[in-house]
């Protein structure tokens, strides 16, 4: 940020906090504290980032007050001309940035984007042909008997997605999630020996299961995916390929993932969040081919209500930022830094799932330290290192305690961390984990949650982190009065 922008930002936020404090001072105080806490910690959560002040400020406006159900130029409320401007611009930036035929920017989150995608695929592949067969224009024209049989048909479809412990997301068919209930689901995993995706195994499963939807994409898989191969598999079995690029959208936008690693030219439907590596506001988005556009466009009223116009405006600002050349440099640095972090661990004898990374995250298997993911996560937090525990493939500790820690580079890269800093981060993490012992339960038995961190380690690591963080301040120049 230039000095002028820093001054403006400082005064805008200081004044906004005064306005908030006049109504509920505890919220103003919590907001100040959150900034202080974020500034003082090593944020390694792979799904988080720091959006620019321009993106953050765009969310705090009167667009929040406007209802705008419908689509651009076709709203169920009057007075939506400015929302139309915002939504059109966000969609245009998304189309241009990703080279997509169509972009739908209304989903409030990644889960919403996936729900829109699922129901759009069902509408396009199942509902529309059924209506045509029955000679009806829409479901309201169906008799009760026809509607009953259509509902059964809609509820009788199959989805194949990546399993949670191989790195997939809850919404990719996990039983407790609605995706695992609305579809008959099966999951593909990774090769037990290498931890890598085995495309032949995915193809074999797809041939046997014949899914309507093949989902690719992940939350915790530290490798790139060949989406051309996934499309071949989908085509062979007549499935729609849906890619959830929530985690790596920034690497697609920044042209680190190109060719077969760019999902947009290969998938029928691509979903994403806007707040992870893409560095925008919290939200979701769906990109689609022309063929799927009409059904995706019906996200509202199919699954969504009124769009969050203030967030769509912030998406437009973030996407405009991602179209600048500097974003490509950022995205490449995110991937380079993940390499540095991985090498930092490997050179200190730590175990990584798949033996490394080629995206923005690493998955550290903490079993070698004699810890569960839960113990490691808590000990690291004591030392000011913010991570999240994560299952590893076939995790003996299950999804709650886990055996892994997932670490991502997007946030600290935004702060300006480079190779040397990420190597030092790996060293500090290994220091904490090697100084942590599993604790015991109240009854004296082995515990998967409690832990004992060696004397003075947390303070030492906090001091070492502070040195790194001071060199790369968050929102440099932003001073709250
Ligand atoms: N899809 C993937 C791959 C994710 O990793 C996540 C979030 O972690 C989501 C979807 C859901 O996003 P949200 O939390 O915005 O609903």
Automatic annotation (TrEMBL):
<comment type="pathway">
    <text>Amino-acid biosynthesis; glycine biosynthesis; glycine from L-serine: step 1/1.</text>
</comment>
<dbReference type="InterPro" id="IPR039429">
    <property type="entry name" value="SHMT-like_dom"/>
</dbReference>
<comment type="similarity">
    <text>Belongs to the SHMT family.</text>
</comment>
<feature type="binding site">
    <location>
        <position position="164"/>
    </location>
    <ligand>
        <name>(6S)-5,6,7,8-tetrahydrofolate</name>
    </ligand>
</feature>
<keyword id="KW-0028">Amino-acid biosynthesis</keyword>
<comment type="pathway">
    <text>One-carbon metabolism; tetrahydrofolate interconversion.</text>
</comment>
<dbReference type="InterPro" id="IPR001085">
    <property type="entry name" value="Ser_HO-MeTrfase"/>
</dbReference>
<protein>
    <recommendedName>
        <fullName>Serine hydroxymethyltransferase</fullName>
        <ecNumber>2.1.2.1</ecNumber>
    </recommendedName>
</protein>
<keyword id="KW-0808">Transferase</keyword>
<feature type="domain" description="Serine hydroxymethyltransferase-like">
    <location>
        <begin position="22"/>
        <end position="123"/>
    </location>
</feature>
<feature type="binding site">
    <location>
        <position position="290"/>
    </location>
    <ligand>
        <name>(6S)-5,6,7,8-tetrahydrofolate</name>
    </ligand>
</feature>
<feature type="binding site">
    <location>
        <begin position="168"/>
        <end position="170"/>
    </location>
    <ligand>
        <name>(6S)-5,6,7,8-tetrahydrofolate</name>
    </ligand>
</feature>
<feature type="modified residue" description="N6-(pyridoxal phosphate)lysine">
    <location>
        <position position="276"/>
    </location>
</feature>
<dbReference type="InterPro" id="IPR049943">
    <property type="entry name" value="Ser_HO-MeTrfase-like"/>
</dbReference>
<keyword id="KW-0663">Pyridoxal phosphate</keyword>
<comment type="subunit">
    <text>Homodimer.</text>
</comment>
<dbReference type="InterPro" id="IPR019798">
    <property type="entry name" value="Ser_HO-MeTrfase_PLP_BS"/>
</dbReference>
<dbReference type="InterPro" id="IPR015424">
    <property type="entry name" value="PyrdxlP-dep_Trfase"/>
</dbReference>
<comment type="function">
    <text>Catalyzes the reversible interconversion of serine and glycine with tetrahydrofolate (THF) serving as the one-carbon carrier. This reaction serves as the major source of one-carbon groups required for the biosynthesis of purines, thymidylate, methionine, and other important biomolecules. Also exhibits THF-independent aldolase activity toward beta-hydroxyamino acids, producing glycine and aldehydes, via a retro-aldol mechanism.</text>
</comment>
<keyword id="KW-0554">One-carbon metabolism</keyword>
<dbReference type="InterPro" id="IPR015422">
    <property type="entry name" value="PyrdxlP-dep_Trfase_small"/>
</dbReference>
<feature type="domain" description="Serine hydroxymethyltransferase-like">
    <location>
        <begin position="157"/>
        <end position="429"/>
    </location>
</feature>
<dbReference type="GO" id="GO:0004372">
    <property type="term" value="F:glycine hydroxymethyltransferase activity"/>
</dbReference>
<dbReference type="Pfam" id="PF00464">
    <property type="entry name" value="SHMT"/>
</dbReference>
<dbReference type="InterPro" id="IPR015421">
    <property type="entry name" value="PyrdxlP-dep_Trfase_major"/>
</dbReference>
<keyword id="KW-0963">Cytoplasm</keyword>
<feature type="site" description="Plays an important role in substrate specificity">
    <location>
        <position position="275"/>
    </location>
</feature>
